[in-house]
Amino acid sequence: MTDAPLAELEPGLMRLRAPNPSPMTGPGTNSYVVGHARLAIIDPGPDDPAHLRALLSVIGGRPVEAILVTHAHLDHSALAPALARATGAPVCGYGPATAGRSAVMRRLADAGIGGGEGLDDAFAPDMRLGDGARVTLSQTPLTALHLPGHMAGHLCFDWCGAVFSGDLVMGWSSTLISPPDGDLAAFRRSCDRLRAHAPRRLYPGHGDPIDAPGERIDWLLAHRAAREAQIRAALRDGPLNPAELTRRLYAELPATLHPAARRNVLAHLIDLMERNLVTPSDGDLDGARFTLT
């Protein structure tokens, strides 16, 4: 796959990579331009004037029928209002940034568990899409799939048997799951469902297209199972809090990435707690010491 920011991936599909590389976004956020004479834009990207100009150049004056957002993180959704003003297209998504949280995650949020990394709190789609919603475009029919896990309101989009997978399945890294926005139990269910959907190809929010979707999904699930096993093994030595577990399990990871790793550890601990496999001490879960039940 070319490293150029702009690439044609197949007839009727262009990828424009936003200029926002980082340890959390890899080479940058992928914006997709779908269609020929009439277009849909998937994940307009960060609120960056240069990226807006580049997108409008690719659009080239062609009508844009819809702006589709996989999830309300700033690197995916923040450019939507400016692009909508420039093209007149409606913005479509699951809902506001906190929409779709499970009862468990709402309870955690009410208790003060904060994730919120990069939430686009201003995101307000013109059209809300539920699971199975058909986006009827003249040349680019797409079907919304509600697949939470990375975020409660995360959508993927089926297009001619390929799936735009957002940050549920990425082409460069495992998936960040940060409660209360990320939910590990939901992530597993969504991965199982996406695998059963049997897409011919995945077009992720970050990284290159994934030509073997089943293998990639299996790897993600195996990675999570291995991390859970590591956490349970560490807790056999005695109670530990998320920070202590992170230092033990991610010793080779640069310290700058430990905050994100700690969120993943917390996601595992909450999942284990909901399954009655670990018990926290009193107080804030993010600082609690966990023991095996």
TrEMBL record:
All copies of the Metallo-beta-lactamase domain together span 28-206
Residues in coiled coil: none
Q: What is this protein called?
A: MBL fold metallo-hydrolase
The organism of origin for this protein:
Limimaricola litoreus
